[in-house]
Amino acid sequence: MTQRAIGAKAGKKRNTVFNSPAVRKHVRNQIWQNRYIYMMVIPVLVYMALFKYMPMYFLRASFYDYKLLKGFEGSKYVGFKWFERLLTSPELWQYVRNTLSLNILSLLICFPAPLVFALLLNEVRSVPYKKFVQTVSYMPHFISTVVLVSIINNICSPSMGTLAKLYRMMGKTPINFLSNPDYFYGVNIVSGVWQTLGWNAVIYISAISGIDANLYEAARIDGAGRFQQVLHVTVPGVLPTFILLLIMQIGQMLNCVFDKIYLLQNTLNLQVSEMLPTYVYKLGMVSHKYGQSTAGGLFNSVVSLFLVLIANGISKRVSETSLF
Questions:
Q1: One domain for residues 134 and 19
Q2: For the chain, what is the mean pLDDT?
Q3: Can you give the pLDDT at residue 18?
Q4: How many other CB atoms are there within 10 angstroms of residue 86's CB atom?
Q5: HEC profile for the chain?
Q6: I need a surface site. Which of 90, 131, 218, 250 has the fewest CB within 10 A?
Q7: Alpha-carbon distance 50 to 58, whole Å?
Q8: What CATH number is associated with residue 269?
Q9: CB under 8 Å, gap of 24 or more: what pairs does 119-127 form?
Q10: pTM of the model
Q11: Can you tell me the distance from the alpha carbon of 193 to that of 267, in angstroms, rounded to the nearest whole number?
Q12: In this predicted model, what pLDDT tens digit does every residue of 152-202 receive, in sequence order?
């Protein structure tokens, strides 16, 4: 019997089993018993359909001189005109450089900080104190971006800010941190660590809790101290999680926390604060260049996809841990 005949026979058998009235009744009963779980999935599916998949239809605007009121039928097809204009614009590469500079700093400082915090928190022996620290550390995550920017403005204001008062107490002239381009990345990194440290550490704390306790016991029997246990048991245990998150983070290298960057922008720091996402937003919503703006967004998505594929391929070869 040939392989094709065997496959056809197996497929026919599976179809026969699935078409059995008893099997169909069992599936219906299972669905009905778990109906509330399926109902909880519906809002997620609706969200994905409305905000993730339906907008893909409008990516074709990058090939049109798109007019909002005329639609695609009344707009002129221009081919790759917007991509050519985008890729030959010297401003684009400045904004890409700004975005990469901020994200590389974030990758070096903000990204590993939750892992270090989780490792330190795991060594705390007092359970009530550990819970208190963990709760306090992830509370800033729930602060809205507008409130966060307001807090940053209140702290960094050169006239009435907290830092300005400290500078005056020391007999120094206050610095306008938000208007000086040299401090823009620093303000974003420090505020980003403060807001995301505790919340992102929850993932690593969960990974640490899943490590087999017998490994620690074996390490203690072999004479390993606390630091050696962390180095040889805990770190390898959370490393796969760290690598997966790193791959996804690399895919976001041309993105940024848009609302935070946009709210912190002003005319004095624009040379470093104008990022690719804010540039694309202004092209579409301010200048009404919908085609060019869509081309910029599509360019961002394609580059991000390649970054994820490259990072995933390297990780697969080096560590045997990958997304797919």
A1: no
A2: 89
A3: 57
A4: 21
A5: CCHHHHHHHHHHHHHHHHCCHHHHHHHHHHHHHCHHHHHHHHHHHHHHHHHHHHHHHHHHHHHEEEECCCHHHHEEECCCHHHHHHHCCHHHHHHHHHHHHHHHHHHHCCCCHHHHHHHHHHCCCCHHHHHHHHHHHHHHHHCCHHHHHHHHHHHHCCCCCHHHHHHHHCCCCCCCCCCCHHHHHHHHHHHHHHHHHHHHHHHHHHHHHCCCHHHHHHHHHCCCCHHHHHHHHHHHHHHHHHHHHHHHHHCCCCCCCHHHHHHHCCCCCHHHHCCHHHHHHHHHHHCCCHHHHHHHHHHHHHHHHHHHHHHHHHHHHHCCCCCC
A6: 90
A7: 12
A8: 1.10.3720.10
A9: 119/204, 119/208, 119/230, 119/234, 119/235, 121/201, 121/205, 122/205, 122/208, 122/230, 122/234, 123/226, 123/230
A10: 0.83
A11: 26
A12: 999 998 888 889 999 999 988 999 999 999 999 999 999 999 999 999 999
Measured CA to CA, the distance from residue 240 to residue 220 in angstroms comes to: 23
Range of the domain at 220: 90-318
Residues paired with residue 71 on neighbouring β-strands, in sequence order: 67
2 and 106 assigned to the same domain: no
Residue 6 has pLDDT above 60, yes or no: no
Q: How far apart are CA 125 and CA 132, in angstroms?
A: 13
- Taking the C-alpha atoms of residue 190 and residue 192, their distance in angstroms, rounded to an integer, is 5
